[in-house]
Amino acid sequence: MLELTQLLYFHTFTPMTFVESFLELLAVSPLWGVYLLCAVFGGTLILFQMFLMMFGIGGADEASDFGDATDHSPADIFKVLSFRTITAGIAFFGLGGLAGLTGETSQLVSFFIAVISGLISIYAVYYLYAAVARLKDDGTLSVKTLVGSTGSVYVRIPSAKSGNGKVLVSQQGRTVEYEAMTAGEELKSGTPIVVVAVVSTTIVEVAVLGAATESK
Q1: Taking the CB of residue 38, how many other CB atoms lie within 10 A of it?
Q2: Of 99, 110, 126, 204, which has the fewest CB atoms closer than 10 Å, so is most exposed?
Q3: Closest residue by Cα to residue 99 from 119, 117, 125
Q4: CB atoms inside a 10 Å sphere around CB 80
Q5: Quick count: other Cβ atoms within 10 Å of Cβ 150?
């Protein structure tokens, strides 16, 4: 029996001879055609998803699809299935099978390689996106819990929101630096402050710690 790769090498590549070679490969091993179809189909979908993500499309459901990986055991295969994980599974099922057939393995062994490759890719993609979703959730939580955090002025803050300075804030067990503004008088370096509002992910509004406490 001719090896699959030899059938390609024996022909000069023109569109017609390529089709003939492909049909000969299918005649030798129909399973080869299944693997190739899966690899091409799955790979095309992955590239299409990456193209959409470059333009900010299709990422809104990440948190709902992948947001809580800790609730699932490895046996809960149906709970980790999504469009992204299935696409990866199809692509790597095909690639794993093709890799198995090009080696010195039987079709049965190549099928097991394909299945294992597909399952590994499904879980790998699932946990990868779950980790990304958790990072986003942690960032959102950090912003929400920032108000009320205390710290001190690091770089002088101009009065009446006329400019930004910098503060060091104690947040979730860490000291974090933010740009800061204040609605009151100028705050000099070393002044104890409290965060009263979040302007953006990098800028906060602060007030003198004692004054903010008394105003309440």
Answers
A1: 22
A2: 99
A3: 117
A4: 20
A5: 16
Q: Domain boundaries in the chain?
A: 4-143, 150-215
Distances (CA, A) of 20 to 13, 102, 122, 184: 10, 19, 34, 80
Higher per-residue confidence, 114 vs 176: 114
Rg (CA), the chain: 29
pLDDT band at 188 (very low <50, low <70, confident <90, very high): very high
Query: b/e string for 162-177 if b means 16 or more Cβ within 10 A?
Result: eebbebbbebeeeeee
- CATH fold of 150-215 reads OB fold (Dihydrolipoamide Acetyltransferase, E2P) (2.40.50)
Angle, helices 83-102/107-144, rounded to nearest 10 degrees: 150
pLDDT > 90? residue 186: yes
Q: Whole-model pTM?
A: 0.48
Token representation of residue 168: 């060091």
Q: Which residues pair with 205 in a beta bridge?
A: 181, 197
